[in-house]
Write a structure and sequence with these properties.
16 helices; single chain; 2 domains; 333 residues; three-stranded antiparallel beta sheet; mainly alpha
Length: 333
């Protein structure tokens, strides 16, 4: 196991301190270590740009540059002070680490687990973790297979495979990476990084524009029958099923409504709790690092949320495609 693969660990942080390199030293001009400084700065920029694009590139790297680029990448994220970027960065770093964890031996996974404050046991009963550690790590994981009620639980211990342990450690790494962001960074440090920061900010802005469905003002007359039905139920004071509420929320966010507007849609529901609803809508909108997309027509039908096809429904496979076609035709006509 290479510490350079897991720069967020406590042991890696200690190794960085032992090198004697400082952020100011790596950025000073002229630099006594120009080649190392270039490698560190390039890799740090690649880390943050990778987070914007969805994946940090993995490949052969200078071990010391890999270690030193992680704290510099965190500084870059902090200089830009953007919540979406911070969440994307923590998620992308964790995904990169998770990919590497799945290649590690169980012995090395156990070492990583202890560093990440997870304490697995091995023995005759196989690999297992205490349910308290399990719940902390699996809190964001929505697949039914990760729910505690669907796990083998004996005397407080949850049985796992090696691969499942790696997945849990990926989530714990994500928590640690995101902790403390944004850092408090002196303005002069951010100024020295201005060229790289400008490039990252431009890509982040372009990514935001790319991910938003921009069809002008929201046109309710162009909503597909499933969405119109959900809105009618909410307006009448009915409580939507979870799958319907999720589909409605993701659709409204995708067509351009903001969090406040979507929260307002649900304020007639009998069980309306503004704080809880806002938390859920913000999470779906991407505040937790992942922006959720509306389900397809096939998924809607599977959950019983398709009220029956209109003629246009036969020519599309997604509620957003229906909406886009209607808007381009001029709304409800």
């Amino acid at each position: 196991m290479s510490l350079a693969d897991y720069p967020f660990t406590r042991e890696a942080a200690s190794r960085v301190e032992e090198t004697g390199y400082s952020l100011e030293g790596l950025l000073e001009d002229p630099n006594p270590q120009p080649r190392l400084s270039r490698l560190v700065r390039k890799r740090a920029t690649d880390r943050v740009l990778g987070a914007v694009r969805g994946e940090i590139p993995d490949g052969p790297a200078h071990p010391l540059a890999e270690l030193l680029s992680y704290p510099l990448a965190r500084v870059m994220v902090s200089c830009l002070d953007d919540d979406l970027l911070a969440r994307r960065y923590a998620l992308a770093e964790a995904k990169l680490a998770g990919k590497k964890m799945r290649r590690e031996s169980l012995q090395d996974l156990l070492l990583l687990a202890r560093d990440l404050d997870v304490h697995p046991q091995t023995g005759q009963n196989g690999l297992r973790v205490h349910f308290s550690d399990y719940l902390k790590a699996a809190a964001r994981m929505r697949s039914p297979g990760w729910k505690l009620v669907n796990r083998s639980l004996e005397r407080g211990w949850v049985t796992l495979t090696d691969r499942e342990l790696a997945r849990l450690l990926e989530e714990r790494a994500r928590d640690r990476i995101g902790r403390g962001l944004p850092l408090s960074v002196p303005a002069e440090i951010c100024e020295r990084l201005r060229e790289d920061l400008t490039r990252i900010a431009e890509e982040l802005s372009a990514k935001r524009a790319e991910e938003k469905v921009d069809l002008g003002e929201v046109t309710e007359d162009a909503f597909p029958p499933c969405i119109r039905g959900f809105l009618a139920q909410v307006a009448s004071g009915a409580n939507l099923a979870h799958s319907a509420r999720f589909a409605l929320t993701t659709f409204l966010l995708a067509v351009g409504m903001d969090v406040d507007e979507v929260v307002g849609v649900f304020n007639t529901s009998p069980d309306f709790d503004e704080e809880r609803t806002r938390y859920q809508v913000e999470h779906i909108s991407g505040k937790g690092g992942t922006r959720y997309k509306p389900p397809s027509c096939a998924t809607m039908a599977t959950y019983g949320n398709c009220p029956g096809e209109e003629r246009l429904c036969r020519w599309v496979n997604h509620p957003l495609s229906y909406y886009e076609r209607k808007v381009k035709r001029g709304g409800g006509g």
